[in-house]
Specification:
Layout: H1 2-8, H2 33-39, H3 43-62, H4 72-86, H5 95-137, H6 144-153, H7 156-166, H8 171-177
Helix pairs in contact: 2-3, 3-4, 3-5, 4-5, 5-6, 5-7
Length: 182
């Protein structure tokens, strides 16, 4: 037994050596304390995390997306704001997982902005067509604001149908163009 104790003893300490699995300091999960701290919304951890990814977010929004440079800071700020709100519910624990999560938020911000811009352009186009149509049929100037308010409330799908109707398409043609059932 004495031989076993000497083999298992830590050199020079006369104490039994512990197996690596028995010592928490020797085998640990990769430490991502900054991510855990950011989940708790600790300001220093959040600042460090977003400074690390700020340049990548700017590149993401100004890269192939072709956003005008004046929109990019707002899109980055919106992404960071959503990430700060969502960090406590983030389920990952590594920097790689956090980066994927952050850029997923950036993608959602991008898609919502695209949808918003499409909606703005579509509303403007429909408004122009509707005013042109109404000017040919009646006096439109005094209720232009009412038309704009009504168009602002319509979902994009209904705006698209109205645009086709103003272009003179039949319901059947509209259904075919929008791939809707008859």
């Amino acid at each position: 037994m004495a031989g076993k104790d000497q083999r298992d003893a830590a050199p020079g300490l006369g104490m039994p050596r512990a197996r690596p699995s028995e010592v928490s300091a020797l085998i640990t999960k990769p430490s991502h304390l900054s991510i855990e701290r950011a989940k708790k919304r600790e300001p220093e951890a959040l600042v460090a995390f977003f400074k690390r990814h700020e340049r990548g977010l700017f590149a993401y929004f100004s890269g192939p997306m072709h956003w005008h440079w004046s929109h990019v800071p707002d899109l980055v700020q919106e992404t960071i704001t959503r990430a700060i709100k969502g960090f406590p519910t983030f389920r990952g624990s590594t920097h790689g997982q956090a980066e994927k999560w952050l850029f997923g938020i950036a993608r959602n911000v991008h898609m919502q902005e695209v949808s918003k811009q499409v909606g703005i352009r579509l509303r403007q186009e429909v408004m122009t067509q509707l005013v042109d149509y109404l000017q040919r049929t009646c006096e439109v100037g005094w209720y232009r604001a009412d038309i704009a308010d009504a168009l602002a409330e319509l979902p994009l799908g209904q705006l698209e149908v109205l645009r086709h109707m103003l272009q003179g398409h039949t319901i059947r043609e509209i259904a075919e163009r929008l791939d809707l059932p008859e």
